[in-house]
Amino acid sequence: MKISIITATYNSAATVRDTLLSVSGQHHTDVEHIVVDGASTDSTLAIVGDFPHVARLISEKDKGIYDAMNKGIAAATGEVIGILNSDDVYIDGSVLSEVAAAFADPAVMTVYADLQYVDAANLQRVKRSWRSGPFKRKNFYYGWMPPHPTFFVRRAVYEQAGLFNLTLRSAADYELMLRVLLKWKMPAYYIPRFIVKMRAGGMSNASLVNRLRANKEDRLAWKMNQLKPFFFTLYMKPFRKITQFFIR
């Protein structure tokens, strides 16, 4: 089973080597790694060029990270597609083998797992842990979502449900998963272990202003899909992150 991994980069020289190493070190042999670069001006492209496993490199100006992801998905030829950001890494070499094993069941359309937030300078230092738990569609109404870097889907899912919505700046991943899992009711499979390390410091949590904008976009994500959350749903979503600091 071919798995396509999409990595969006822009001036990512400080971190992208770790990402590339984590993909090239996977035991699963049928991997298509596509790097979509936003016309970097640092040494990102030179670093990517050092990794012969990269199947395709697209470098041109884009409309942001979700536009880059959409370009990568459009270029992908794998049956299964995953997104790995340029500052994230797979936790070990068996991750994509486990993902492929889950998708061996033709009824499985999406797969997700657990994620660790780690120190930007020390990937061994865990700052908080995101344990997703088994899939229950109703959990979306209680602020739940799977960690997007652990989220894999069959290419047919994108073909049916669509790509990332570029009108959203920080919640396009949330909106996509809401659309795929809640609106379209695609079956999901949970791998109960950590498979991705993500450097702490995401866009939506960088400041109070960004958090408020993200909450507004989360609300819009429900409206876009003609879904109605509970009155507390969107307050529960950031609250759930607090509990991650107490999980190891």
UniProtKB/TrEMBL annotation:
Domain of life: Bacteria
Keywords: Transferase
Pfam assignment, any one: Glycos_transf_2
UniProt signal peptide: none
InterPro entries per record: Glyco_trans_2-like (IPR001173), Glycosyltransf_2 (IPR050834), Nucleotide-diphossugar_trans (IPR029044)
Glycosyltransferase 2-like domain boundaries: 4-149
GO molecular function: transferase activity
UniProt protein name: Glycosyl transferase
Protein's organism: Puia dinghuensis
Taxonomy of the source species: Bacteria, Pseudomonadati, Bacteroidota, Chitinophagia, Chitinophagales
